[in-house]
Amino acid sequence: MIRALYTAVSGMKSQQAKQQVVINNLSNMDTNGYKEDNLIVKKFSDVLIENKDNLINGKSKKNIIGSLSLGTAIDEVYTKFLQGNITTTD
After folding, report:
1. How far is CA 14 from the centre of its chain?
2. DSSP string, the chain
3. Are 49 and 68 in contact (CB under 8 A)?
4. Across-strand partners of 51?
5. Which is more confidently placed, 85 or 35?
6. Which residue among 22, 36, 58, 74 has its CA within the 20 to 30 Å range from the CA of 29?
7. What is the pLDDT of residues 43-57, one digit of tens each?
8. ∠30-31-32 over CA atoms, to 5°?
9. CA neighbours closer than 13 Å in the CB half-sphere of residue 75
10. Global pTM?
């Protein structure tokens, strides 16, 4: 139950950060020389779920059942430094 809440919170934080980047880009769209920002979101490493109940020759054997995702994390916000359109102003 608690793990599900942490997963949901990590997703909400990532979406909020994405929204802030988009709002910043939209509000500065007409600003001369403004460079667009982008947000990179990465997935947490998957944790393997193991079951050690199988006994083979008196030793417990590890059985990998599957993986469990723990949500997302914000990796970085980077700025695109590409040349914009050149317009003549006369």
Report:
1. 6
2. -HHHHHHHHHHHHHHHHHHHHHHHHHHTTTSTT---EEEEEEEPPPEEEEEEEEEETTEEEEEEEEEE---EEEEEEEE-----------
3. yes
4. 63
5. 35
6. 74
7. 655 445 666 666 677
8. 110
9. 9
10. 0.60
